[in-house]
Design brief:
This protein is mainly alpha-helical. 81% of the residues lie in helices and 4% in strands. A hairpin with a 5-residue loop joins strand 1 (37-38) and strand 2. The longest helix has 57 residues, at 50-106. The relative contact order is 0.04. The mean pLDDT is 78.
Amino acid sequence: MNEDLKANAAKRSTDSNSKRSYEDIYANKAVLDTPVTRSHKGTMTSGLNAAETTFYRLAAVCLGLLCVLLLAAVTVLCFTFITETDQLQTNYTNLTIEAFHIWVLEK
């Protein structure tokens, strides 16, 4: 049985199509290899240079600040809305009482 396997392997190695497929595989090997390094924190990086890292860090900081600013704006608007709603409710109550007094006095 081992002899049959060896004979088939020898036959495949002499076949021109198999040689071409092996060459194609090794030609594409360079495309598949990507530089992957580990940083000092143990995370995987894809070989970014210092300028790209600085750019992404700056972008992340800017987005974080925008999130904080948005949170502050929503908080202020919510407080303003609640205060204005309370004032409108107070005005409505006062007008209703005044209208009732006028209606009672007319009778």
